Amino acid sequence: MKQKGILPKLPFLFICIFLFFAVQPAFAEDIPAEEVSAEENASVEEAPSNPFLEHSDFVLELTPSIFHNTGTPSVRAPSAFFFPLSAGLCYNFTDFFSIESMLSFFYNYYLISEDKVVISEIENRTAVALSLMLSIPVVFSFDLFAKSKLEVCTGPAFLFRLPLLAPGVDSNDSGFYGTAASDVNYMMHWFYESGRFLYFNLKFSWLFSVDQVKFGPVVSLEIPAVTIFTDKNLNGFIVSAGLKIVY
Asked: So where are the chain's domains?
């Protein structure tokens, strides 16, 4: 008996496969486009919003500053001129009332004169103090002209200083209290006793709005809140002026 080969069956097989896929759309359920779109949207989860960030603005200040220096003129340096790095956040409760938190980083050289720590020239330095100013003022905003407003900020500020031996100064070098290392230890105590780290912040800015960004001139005063009465001077009084950017 002669066997049949598979080749004669191939056309019939191709026809069956073609008919199988051809009739599938006829039996498929007709799903409305709206339902498909809704299912696709439901499958994409939206990122949860953060209420704090929604009501907050990022603040950047570029403000050259002057650090008022008192002490014996023959020993101390003139009032120091420095450029702090300042940035923070402003939380807006309303268009009128906000709370701002700012961090400013800078450094100065110091020495001891007549039991007081004063800013020094680089040639006479004993220590370099890494300084961090944290200010938390309340902000009142007043509309002036079209797309511009006046901001008045007032509140507490805290100046944290970490004295370290200045580059090129050895711990055994002579100092006011014997050695440079002893002077640095005294500075650490002096910076924080009698509330010398407490300040009162007063700031004025005039901001103009362009799209989502506000910018304009700013003037800031950092007033020693306690030592103005205990030390009876304005040593450490800081005046800043420059540019404020909010977005």
From this structure: 54-246
Task: Look up the pTM and report it.
Answer: 0.76
* Whole-angstrom distance, CA of residue 36 vs CA of residue 40: 6
Output DSSP code: residue 71: S
**Tens digits of per-residue pLDDT, 85-137?**
999 999 999 989 999 999 999 999 999 988 889 888 888 899 999 999 999 99
Q: For the segment 123-145, what is each residue's pLDDT rounded down to a tens digit?
A: 889 999 999 999 999 999 999 88
SS3 171: coil
Burial class (CB in 10 A: 0-12, 13-18, 19+), 150: middle
- HSE (side-chain half, CA atoms, 13 Å) at 123: 3
Identity at 33, one-letter amino acid code: A
Q: State the architecture of 54-246 in CATH terms.
A: Beta Barrel (2.40)
